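ZP: hey, is the 6-O-phosphono-beta-D-fructofuranose complex queued? I don't see it on the tracker
AM: it wasn't, my bad. submitting now with these inputs:
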Amino acid sequence: MVLNKKIPTKIGVLTSGGDAPGMNAAIRAVVRTGIYHGVQMAGIIRGFTGILENDIVDMDNRSVANIIQRGGTILKSARCKDFYTKEGRAQAIKNLQQHGIEALVVIGGDGSIRGAMHLGNEFNFPCVAIPGTIDKDLAGTDFTIGFDTAVNTAVSCIDKIRDTMEAHDRLFIVEVMGRHAGYIALNSGIATGAEYILVPEAHTSMKRIATSLNEKTKRKKLVNLVVVAEGYGENGAVGFVEELKKYLPNVDARISILGHIQRGGAPTCMDRLIASRMGYHAIECLLEGKQQVMIGIKNNAICYTPFEDALAVQQITHDAWLKIIKILAS
Ligand code: F6P
């Protein structure tokens, strides 16, 4: 962890990458904790893009009123291509300095944390990150903001699909979000009693799945549900069904792609709580002179993980779950 003796007098906060329910609760906590400590607070609109476009506004306690319960992000979000270049980041530093911003709180996923890491490594600019992503694909924390809400949304949608699935004795393939990570699929799949859960990180034999689904149909198992992460194989649920039809040409399967509905809606209590705790500690962390770390929660305690370690590839513990899934779905 890098220690900085100079205490920032003005701190900027931004949300970047895919939005996640609970980001507003984190912004609220960051701004109010900063104000409590007498720090000037600035909100940057549309993530790193807002720095480059000088879209920066002063914030006070009232700027973050009535947002703890709202999904999305009042600061808006974006994926900023210019930030991939060192020239873009150098321009960002100039703009931040012009606004008197001496440190940043970045709320977002792996791409956003990478951006913050570059600002620290290349320009020694103090940054801390708060993990905000529905994908939960960061090391150094048991939770990321938005994951709990996204999984609960997926579960409530799949529960509804089960009703019609059972009425028609049909096979349903439900695709949930997760381009590179299978945590949403794994969690929502287990919680809805899926027969199979397919994630980008692991390969599952199609022949085995086809044989097992066929056998379950024959013995009239009530529910035949497969939950697939969008990043599984070539084309998520659609690619899965194409492959399956090579083994079961007459299968009566329906695909339901849940999509961005999983990113919206009011954050759950859990997401509001972790966002509030992480937002508070992000400011405390900067004021203690700590920087270049992601705030996390492990075993219910706040912890700080260097950016590089937070970005270390996460190997999903899929194998450990496979046996449970198989036994419970029999
Ligand atoms: O934010 C994470 C995520 O929702 C992934 O699960 C998904 O693959 C991706 O973002 C979608 O991004 P976009 O909204 O830019 O299409």
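AM: back. The chain has a mean pLDDT of 94.
ZP: great, adding it to the tracker
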